[in-house]
Specification:
Structural class: alpha/beta
Largest sheet: 6 strands, mixed
Order of helices and strands: HEEEEEEEEHEEEEHEHEHEEEHEEEEE
Radius of gyration: 31 Å
CATH topology of the largest domain: Molybdenum Cofactor Biosythetic Enzyme, Chain A
Bound molecules: adenosine monophosphate, magnesium ion
Helix content: 10-25%
Number of domains: 4
Strand content: 25-35%
CATH superfamily of the largest domain: MoaB/Mog-like domain
CATH class of the largest domain: Alpha Beta
CATH architecture of the largest domain: 3-Layer(aba) Sandwich
Number of strands: 22
């Protein structure tokens, strides 16, 4: 069969040009919006903090009253009121007066600073202050953290833990999010059994289903599982047809290379799917095949879990992100230096799970051979090793950040 692999970039382009950003959206309670993609840009509705307040427990006073104060001649001020967090001061402080304030309590009009309890004699009716303070010392201004109208979350951004806290501080209780696209996942292979069955000779547990399901969830999409299919082109075609009815995008694993039972290209032909590409110039997972049918993409990945994981991240990742409404589709690339040499010259471009820290990337940190799923344990990036000469420690490479 004719096989003319394309570059990864070209495959991603072919995929993305067939996906349009959906405008389907819904409202999610704030906590459920975590990890989802914002459908609307949200701005600060109010200043944070909403009023001038005390950053310490102490006495709010006029700094001009303390001119010349010292240890030997402290200034005594009359304590006229006490404010707790949640109180509202009614009247302004007169010269020579001060108010006891707790952290977070409003600073009464007229006061220009706050002195900490522990820096005074903490007197009841009168308090002695043994030094002077600057104007607005220990003083939290209205709006000093966030000004009303400031952008907090942009359409297309993944909603993170800081967003949740900041939006809650603004009184938001929900957020508009893109509706999750449905991503079909189909494991093919007659050797596969599910985890609740005893392991029989020659069989293996299906890990791709869950591994890819988890990745799909992480991208803000909803996994839909097809019934695992044996290596039988008719059965695979039927299962795919079912998934196409409900799903926006489909990922299959197994049966893409050139073994006797590698039926996915044949399944594509049976279904009369357009073949977007067959093979990508990369390792592992180079046999990946892209099909297009009924305005939907079917991405057929190798069954090898390590290869399926990498090729999912590199290819399905950008496609699903676009489908899910994410503004950033591609991966962020970071230039870094290799921690250890990559001594074998590379016939093809390689993508390996790796650990990036302080500008240095290490591929052997997990102690597991590359290409195995276990090599992704503890990784935080995929390193892009170009085809060609062996690389030495310290050589510059690029790492791709794969988390949303
Ligand atoms: P294939 O791509 O079908 O040639 O499979 C490559 C290797 O991956 C074989 O060793 C398969 O047994 C294994 N494999 C295929 N599908 C899965 C799966 N869903 N979970 C775990 N291993 C798999
Ligand atoms: Mg197989």
């Amino acid at each position: 069969m004719k096989h003319s692999p394309v570059s990864l970039e070209s495959a991603v382009e072919r995929l993305l040009e067939r996906i349009s950003v959906p405008e389907r959206h819904e409202t999610a309670p704030l906590l459920d919006a975590l990890g989802r993609i914002a459908f609307k840009t949200l701005e600060a509705l109010i200043d944070t903090p909403p009023f001038d307040n005390a950053p310490v427990d102490g006495f709010a006073l006029r700094h001009t009253d303390l001119t010349g104060a010292s240890k030997d001649s402290p200034v005594a001020l009359r304590v006229v009121e006490t404010f707790y967090a949640g109180d509202t001061p009614a009247k302004a402080l007169e010269p020579g007066q001060c108010a006891r304030v707790m952290t977070g309590a409003p600073i009464p009009p007229g006061a220009t600073c706050v002195v900490r309890y522990e820096d005074t004699d903490n007197g009841k009716d009168y308090v002695k202050v043994p030094f002077s303070l600057k104007e607005y010392q220990n003083y939290r201004f209205q709006g000093e953290e966030l000004r009303k109208g400031r952008k907090l979350l942009e359409k297309g951004e993944y909603i993170t833990v800081p967003h949740i806290g900041i939006l809650a501080g603004q009184g938001y209780t929900e957020a508009a999010v893109f509706t999750r696209p449905k991503v079909g996942i189909l494991s093919t292979g007659s050797e596969l059994i599910s985890g609740n069955q005893p392991l029989r000779p020659g069989k293996i547990y299906d890990s791709n289903r869950y591994m890819l399901g988890a990745k799909v969830k992480r991208l803000g999409a909803e996994p839909v599982f097809g019934a695992n299919a044996a290596d039988d082109p008719k059965v695979i075609a039927e299962t795919l047809t079912e998934l196409l009815e409900t799903c926006d995008f489909i990922v299959t694993t197994g049966g893409v290379s050139v073994g006797d039972q590698d039926y996915m290209p044949l399944v594509g032909d049976l279904l009369k799917a357009e073949r977007m590409f067959r093979g990508i110039r990369m390792k592992p997972g180079g046999w990946v095949t892209g099909l297009y049918l009924a305005s939907k993409i079917i991405l057929c990945l190798s069954g090898n879990p390590g290869a399926a994981a990498v090729s999912f991240d590199l290819l399905a990742g950008p496609g699903i992100r676009r489908l899910a409404g994410a503004a950033l589709e591609g991966h962020r690339r970071i230039r870094c230096s290799l921690e250890e040499p990559f001594s074998k010259p590379n016939k093809s471009r390689r993508f390996l799970y790796a650990y990036l820290e302080a500008g240095k990337v290490s591929v052997s940190s997990t102690g597991v051979g590359s290409g195995h799923l276990a090599s992704s344990l503890g990784s935080n990036c995929i390193v892009d090793i170009p085809a060609g000469a062996a690389l030495s420690a310290g050589d510059t490479v690029e790492a791709l950040l794969i988390e949303p």
